[in-house]
Amino acid sequence: MMLSPKASYQAAPATTMSTMGSMAAINPSVQYSSQMPGSMNSINSYSMSPMNNMGSMNMNGMNSMNGMSPMNSMNMNTMGTMNQVMSTSPAMNMELARASSLANQMNAVNRVRTDNKTYRRSYTHAKPPYSYISLITMAIQSSPNKMVTLSDIYQFIMDLFPFYRQNQQRWQNSIRHSLSFNDCFLKVPRTPDRPGKGSFWTLHPDSGNMFENGCYLRRQKRFKCPKREAQRVTQRDGRTDEHGEETTGSTGSPHMTDTTTAQQQQTQQQMPQPKVEPHTMSPPPPNSIQSITSMSNNVPTSLAMARPIPQQAAYVSGMGAHMLGPGQHPSFNHPFSITNIMSPAEHGKAYEAMGYPGYNTMSPISSMPKSSMEQTGYTNLTTSEPSYSQLGTQQNPIPNSIAH
DNA sequence: CTATGTTTAGAGGCTC
DNA sequence: GAGCCTCTAAACATAG
User: Fold this and answer.
1) Does nucleic acid strand C have an atom less than 7 angstroms from the CB of A256?
2) To the nearest whole percent, how much of chain A has pLDDT over 90?
């Protein structure tokens, strides 16, 4: 029997809505200011606008990075298009801004630390209150094209949170696992025109309500693609899944209840099936990556057989594990498709045109209930995270009545 | 060889 | 307490 070492540094507590509500008055900067007099100017960025936070975060991240990495330029690019991103998913950017604010505080506290002997522990050692799925989602959403490579995800996380600049092998393995294991992440293969290692990763368009409880540490329910689940069952049992929920529920992943399966299948069925003639596909915008559009001729045979989609509609096809599937969204119009890279502002329109109303509110981050955001004022950080409670004087700054 | 991706297994915490 | 979610570890396969 193997003992998990995680208890010694991480406990991954989930924060319930009630806890979130009660935490509304808790401002991390206030908590730490009581321990670090005079440091408010440096760390009270929670009262700042998200954009300010985002900007300062990135600069902090950049300052602490060694040299120029591809991701650095990506972050700069992200910053450059922040206005567009904001228009695509405001709530998502609130979360990103909050995450960046947290990173900002980490760095600020790091600076304060040198002037304050009483401060014993750096934010650098604190594990950010986000699940890996949340972090991956943030990385994807922060990308102008909503598609990132694995290394981009790594860099995004390390840029944002110094905590993840250590023990990289451990958490990066978890990142890879999360990408492969969770249906909400879709793998988009590279085109011959864009050689390189690894694929691109994007979000499944139907995975929008993963974090509807407003908690980014733990999803209320896990998104599962019925089609992919059926594939798993088929592979596992060596037979065709013809009984849908029953088979899925009995032999499927232990992470999925029958109820959830039924709900999601219903959602899938209710999702309007766009009827877009291939020839009506608009030419890519001027700033699109033209070279990628040749992907339709590069669909692996095995994958093409698995998904008999029209050749004209073949986007970045492939069903390796969790490629975008037919019926879920047409490839040639999928806002995330690399064959259809468009401005964030166009994403919403495209989605609405293909029968996905409210795309702008689909992102996991943006699915945070408005009431929750109003209650929390962006402060729904799961401050019950033990690693945070060990900050400062190593006394838990959060009253037990609130933290638990 | 290294990075990437998949899969399995188990532990701990949370929700119902 | 059962079921679910997340995290971690590890083995293995594959691509560049």
Assistant:
1) yes
2) 11
